[in-house]
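G., the chain you wanted modeled:
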Amino acid sequence: MKNEGSHDERLPPIAPAAIASGHIVALFAFDVGYEVVLDRVHQLASPQPAQPLSGKKQTPSYLQYTRLPLKLDCGYVEPGNPASGDVQATLFDFGAISMSYRIPLTANEERPLIDDLPAISRHLHERMLERDARDRIASLMQRIEAAIVRPSLSALVEDYYLIVLERLEPELTAEQLMEGHRHALAHALQFESDGLSRHQQEEAVAQRISYYYNDLVLVDWNAAIIYDREYDDAASVLELLNVELLEARFTDAELDKHIEAVSDLLHQRMGWPIPFRTPYRRTLYDLAELQIASSVLAERVDNALKLIGDLYLARLHAAAARRFYLLEWEQAISRKLGIINNYYRLLTDRVRNAQSQTLELVVILLILVELLLALLRR
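Predicted structure as tokens:
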């Protein structure tokens, strides 16, 4: 029995919130070649430039794309498909294309609840749109092949999902959304219907960014939730970060492939070197080209979007980069470039030493021949 004057401190239950307007964007990033010459794309298709950062949240003019990517409409998914919606490709000049599927959450006047998001996200994730995205990328590459330098579709793909909540009924603040629907938001980010531990739920929603009282971005490893009517800037930053992660994985895989090949080569006995000939000429050329290409790609990707200062989009970029472990990828790539550089020097030194020994042997043989000829003349 409660003491006199005591009261129940439990918060009243929050009424279920419905999604009045929203959609999910499924992103699939591909590496398609060394470079996409955006100026040539205009001659081969009818692209539209991506929207520059809008200036929302007092974004200064220098927070902007270095080179605006191009957008191309790529049709739609058939209405009979549960993941029906528009499909669009974003072309980046550093040789990447991001294919996006925009699937409305409020089709046919249905208004799902926030608590329905885990089942919706899981169902969409299980639709395996990657195969469709790869087919569309291959078709697009054929269409704009003349604009791609060294075209080659990588086997790697990086997927990411944006759950965009433009308007809720009733309207909620960011705190109310987190307080009343943390469980559903965490499960939607993890594509799980139920069963996540409390610790895992907290981990899923740990990276959160807000600017106004009524906007919120939750960033997880494979999905993000954006609660904002003006969501375009945040969506663009996250799409570019997904492409950055793809390029980091692509570079890492290329380095692994060459490290393994050169490691095997170093364990082989080198054939008899001919003076002034380099037995590993092709390998050394490939290693040098790989170092240059990796450094150039990293520089171009890093410079694709200028975000300087402790501002909203810069903080969003930093939070997502932490969640994507981009720093760890960059550190791994740096270490492997160091290994490549050491292998290059080892192969060069081995060739030089072998050629030097061969030249010394040739000199000795010539001296012996001279001595033999001198003895024969006597």
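Residues 240-372 form one domain.

Shout if anything looks off.
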